[in-house]
Amino acid sequence: MATAVPVLPEPQARALAEAYASAVAARRLRGLAVLVAIVVLALVSGYLAHVRPLTLFANIGNFGSFISRTIPDFSSGNPVADLRAWYWNFPGWLALLGQTILIAYLGTLMGALGAVALCFFASANIALGRGSRIVTRRLLEFCRTVPDIVFALIFVIAFGLGPMAGVFALAIHTTGALGKLFAEVVENIDMKPVEGMRATGASWIQTVRYAVLPQVAPGFASYALLRFEINVRGAGVMGFVGAGGIGQEFLVAIRNFYYSDVSAILLMIIATVIIIDMLTERLRHRLIGFEGAR
After folding, report:
1. Which residues does 176 contact at the CB level (< 8 Å), separation at least 6?
2. 89-293, which class in CATH?
3. Helix, strand, coil: what percent of the chain each, to 5?
4. By the 8 A CB rule, do 221 and 279 touch?
5. Cα torsion through 81, 86, 87, 93, rounded to 10
6. Share of the chain above pLDDT 70, in %
7. pTM of this prediction exceeds 0.85
8. Is the pLDDT confidence value at 209 over 60?
9. Taking every annotated instance into account, which residue ranges of this chain make up the domain ABC transmembrane type-1 (predicted)?
10. How far apart are CA 72 and CA 89, in angstroms?
11. 3-state secondary structure of 41
12. What's the pLDDT band for 293 if we cut at 50, 70, 90?
């Protein structure tokens, strides 16, 4: 059955078309203005930061030369012996790499526990009051704003050389970073269970335990695993200030121009990060119910 398509009067149709064209033009103009602002800021930032593309192109060969010197020579006659000579200190480096992973694990665990303890006070929908929320958020900002390498240097000065300084530095920085993420997860929960618990006269702790925590636990675990992966890379640098791990050995190799040792240690760190990334990714997908992980 055919139906007639209503036709607007010419003046009304023209007015609607002009309004649509005007809205589209205004939207394109705003987009162009944003793009111009981004380009201008990029150029100004590059100028003030002394980013010189011509200098980069002129010296790019030095970078390639350094990389080529870190690659050892392999002979076709006995490559196994060359590989052993390349990784001459493999047991020692492996032990230091294991120490780096343990530093990252303990720092992540302590930081995640601290973030869980503080995130509920920093969330807008669960916090006990505006004052506690402001104080907690400023504390988390301080913890994540100061670089972890600076915390590590402070703890090395206070407690001496060793992995303990690295653990505390990562724990503080992780508390600040995860605290913000956890608070945002809490702010996105379904408030109906919370309102139901409050209606029954439950205390704040009971409300958090039975109405909030079950909703946010998978997200908390997912972010904590992601942070562990990041902290493994961070712990690899802690040795630069004497906070334990393989970073100190890596720094010694760089300073003494042991080029083959630099590439050997760097490849071990890269392989470790890749393996941890693959494992934590599968765990995160299972926790959040991602279908592709099954």
Report:
1. 115, 139, 140, 141, 142, 143, 144, 145
2. mainly alpha
3. 80, 0, 20
4. no
5. 170
6. 95
7. no
8. yes
9. 97-280
10. 15
11. helix
12. very low
Q: Report how far residue 240's alpha carbon sits from residue 261's, in angstroms, rounded to the nearest whole number.
A: 16
The rounded distance, in Å, linking the Cα atoms of 73 and 64 is: 16
Contact 104, 174 (CB under 8 A): no
pLDDT at 291 over 50: no
For residue 161, give both structure tokens: 């050389």
Size of the chain, expressed as the number of residues it contains = 294
In this prediction, residues 221-236 reach a mean pLDDT of 90
In the chain, the amino acid numbered 10 is E
- Give one DSSP letter per residue of 57-118, joined into a string: HHHHHHHHHHHHHHSPP--SS-HHHHHHHHTTTHHHHHHHHHHHHHHHHHHHHHHHHHHHHH
Which burial class, exposed, middle or buried, applies to 22 when counting CB atoms under 10 A from its CB (0-12, 13-18, 19+)?
exposed
Domain layout of the chain by residue ranges:
20-53, 89-293
In angstroms, the first-to-last Cα distance of the chain is: 49
pLDDT tens string 6-28 = 776 777 778 888 888 888 899 99
